[in-house]
Amino acid sequence: MNATSAGALLLCRAEPAAVRHPAHLLREQQLLAPAGEEWSVLVPEGKPWLDGGEPVDRVLGGWASAVAVGTNWPVLALWWDGDRSGFTLASGFRRPVGYVWLADGTPVGEDEAMRTFAARLGLDPVLDLQALEPLTLPDPESDGRARLLGLIAVLARSGLALPAGLAPGEPADRLRSAAHALGAEPVEWSGWRDAVRAEFDAVEEGPLGPWLRGPTARLLSAAQLAAGVPMVARGVRRRSGGWAVAGAVLIVHGALGLVYDRVRGRRG
Fold first, then answer.
1. In what order do the strands lie in the sheet with 97-102?
2. Greatest CA separation found in the chain?
């Protein structure tokens, strides 16, 4: 592969209806489709890793963190280019965990990262971890694509079922064409006002809406705002779109939480 044949997928452990609103905040056009029981997949429409100067792994890591900070389910970014392939798992405010293989399949990640990955996804600590272990060992018969396919095979035990044509290792153009052929739902940025309104409606209609108020909720919202501002500053300083987006999402969720608490307080 070469730089133009790089590709990526975002796997969310949630139904498409739950993924739709957080995905809007990425400010990037995506295609959303179901990917098995309680799984969804986001396929990028564009190739920001070519336009923005950031490598595909950094772009996807930032996206995964941006979606995960405002949700209660993990987000798994799969990525690959001409030199490497790998994944980044983001879950809430915890530090993302990832693993990397060279193009020829040589593992260059840490064993502890794979164990943390399994624990955060709630995989079987014995059977699934044993199935993941070969991915961390040398294997002259496996290249980077085969390693990602092996990872997908393990996740299939937890309900993941990628739609036809959306396989790791495919170029971004081919993934996009396959997603369109499947009738995947376009997720487009429509401005901060609409994004915040959509998030507010989702919280209001959800089962936790009546409980997201009071001192604890305000403290969490303030913490999101406090964490988001330096993340945006770091993204601007490093010219990293991923960090900037993640920080912006934290700021939006923090502000939304404070507004929601006040509105619910007036209604109550």
1. 97-102, 84-90, 75-80, 7-12, 40-44, 30-34, 185-187
2. 64
Instruction: Give me the amino acid identity at 214.
Output: G
Output b/e per residue, 139-167; b: 16+ Cβ within 10 A: beebbbbbbbebbbebbeebebebbeebb
Q: Taking residues 56-65, report their average pLDDT.
A: 91
- pTM of the predicted structure, to 2 decimals: 0.76
Q: Which residue has the tokens 């564009």?
A: 46
Residue whose token pair is 């772009």: 59
Residues β-bridged to residue 10: 42, 77
Sorted by where each begins, the domain ranges of the chain are 3-186, 191-267
Residue 60 burial by CB count (10 A; 0-12/13-18/19+): exposed, middle or buried?
Answer: buried
Cβ(197)–Cβ(249) under 8 Å?
no
pLDDT interval class at 209 (50, 70, 90) = very low
Residue corresponding to tokens 């699934």: 128
In the chain, DSSP assigns E strands to 7-12, 30-34, 40-44, 75-80, 84-90, 97-102, 185-187
To which residue do tokens 């604890």 refer? 216
